[in-house]
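STRUCTURE:
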């Protein structure tokens, strides 16, 4: 419970308007995009400065109040679902781009900056921030760092972790901790940034984030290859990578997803295709032409029935916008959508795609499969109605089967969505018990009162 004295103190620190206690407000912050039960927090706080954020963290720790930081709430693994009687700290007022440095190619941002806003601001200065999660139009940089978000360009350009140069965050006492540097190289102290990226808010609260920027590619070419059998498409993915070609993006859509996306976006996708590969190569113009020719040749050799190359930027953008709408398109079809991101070594993509089909048949459930096939990160999307108890039991069994298969193929539980609470009970299968115990020791040392997003990842 929030005592009257503490409530008054929060209002002094934040201002009355930034302390939310009405149930209508609090319900908004009780859930994220994962299919999990909502938890209504006791209070939501909206700091407008780093100093206020520091004081909020300190007060929560002193009063043993569980604290969950929330950006846009697009998390897909329960990472932003608060604790009962806990505090939600909103970052939407900490939304300033503090610096874009073209000479040294970095940006400094507050955690509430929207990903797409940063990308556009950087692009306006002739630079490029590659991480592009599907939720980039609304997701925030703080959330991206907390989850180590990926995206369509992860195959060639990597994920959020690869662009974090420096972090300024608050420890559980509200004290500022600085790790990393604005320099290209930094070997000063422990790599705390490496520990905090992907920690899902369990080890610290971000205040300022410095991100690496790169020059944009000089040229791009996008295409989609049509296949009459899903195996041919998945095997083509493995063949492209095996031939040492690294596209900027290499996306896979099965027929179910193609039809849903086309109905949603009217982008001109071939609805009779068994599968599509959406491919983009970029870089120096000569290299782009060479790589594009190699990719086309490989696709035809592997059984593509047709290949369509985007004739201009507008057509290219239309196709990629359609791909980004896949989850929204599928979500229209059933009341409940479960989006997973089990990831396998790239050579195992054909095995994983076949496994999805078998699991769908075995448990008699609808699964639309799409995703970043080029880096092994598929998104099997289960369409169901959670109110149908019998079907929901089959869904849970199917999810178990998906994770078991991914691990059996040498893969991982999550390529980019994180563990949160949704996958924490699977973690020991991948890492072993000693790893979880080790992680809990770190958590206990840094957060002895266990207030920082408790229960996430390691269930502590």
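SEQUENCE:
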């Amino acid at each position: 419970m929030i005592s009257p004295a503490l409530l008054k103190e929060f209002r002094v620190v934040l201002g009355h308007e930034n302390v939310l206690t009405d149930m209508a407000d609090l319900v908004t912050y009780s859930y994220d995009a994962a299919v999990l039960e909502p938890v209504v927090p006791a209070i939501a706080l909206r700091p407008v400065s780093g100093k206020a954020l520091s004081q909020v963290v300190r007060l929560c720790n002193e009063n043993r109040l569980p604290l969950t930081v929330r950006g846009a709430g697009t998390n897909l693994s329960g990472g932003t679902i608060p604790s009962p009687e806990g505090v939600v700290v909103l970052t939407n007022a900490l939304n300033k781009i503090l610096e874009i440095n073209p000479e040294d190619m970095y940006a400094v941002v507050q955690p509430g900056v929207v990903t797409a806003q940063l990308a556009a601001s950087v692009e306006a200065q002739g630079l490029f921030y590659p991480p592009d999660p599907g939720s980039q139009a609304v997701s925030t940089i703080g959330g991206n760092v907390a989850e180590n978000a990926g995206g369509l360009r992860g195959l060639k350009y990597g994920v959020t972790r690869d662009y974090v140069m420096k972090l300024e965050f608050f420890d559980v006492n509200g004290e500022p901790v600085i790790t990393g540097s604005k320099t290209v190289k930094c070997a000063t102290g422990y790599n705390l940034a490496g520990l905090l990226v992907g920690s899902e808010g369990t080890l610290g609260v971000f205040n300022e984030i410095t991100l690496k920027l790169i020059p944009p590619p000089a040229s791009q070419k996008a295409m989609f290859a049509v296949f009459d059998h899903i195996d041919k498409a998945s095997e083509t993915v493995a063949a492209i990578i095996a031939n040492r070609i690294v596209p900027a993006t290499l996306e896979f859509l099965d027929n179910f997803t193609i039809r849903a996306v086309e109905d949603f976006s009217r982008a001109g996708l071939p609805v009779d295709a068994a599968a599509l590969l959406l491919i983009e190569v970029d870089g120096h113009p000569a290299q782009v032409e060479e790589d594009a020719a190699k990719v086309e040749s490989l696709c035809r050799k592997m059984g593509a029935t047709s290949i369509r190359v985007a004739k201009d930027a507008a057509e290219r953008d239309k196709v990629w916008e359609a791909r980004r709408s896949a989850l929204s398109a599928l979500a229209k079809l059933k009341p409940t959508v479960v989006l997973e991101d089990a990831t396998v070594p790239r050579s195992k993509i054909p095995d994983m795609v076949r496994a999805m089909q078998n699991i769908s048949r075995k448990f008699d459930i609808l699964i639309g499969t799409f995703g970043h096939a080029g880096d092994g990160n598929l998104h099997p999307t289960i369409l169901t109605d959670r109110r149908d108890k019998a079907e929901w039991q089959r869904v849970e069994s199917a999810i178990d089967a998906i994770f078991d298969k991914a691990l059996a193929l040498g893969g991982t539980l999550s390529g980019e969505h994180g563990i949160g609470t949704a996958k924490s009970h699977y973690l020991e299968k991948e890492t072993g018990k000693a790893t979880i115990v080790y992680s809990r020791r770190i958590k206990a040392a840094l957060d002895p009162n266990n207030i920082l997003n408790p229960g996430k990842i390691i269930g502590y």
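REMARK: Residues 389-408 form the longest helix (20 residues).
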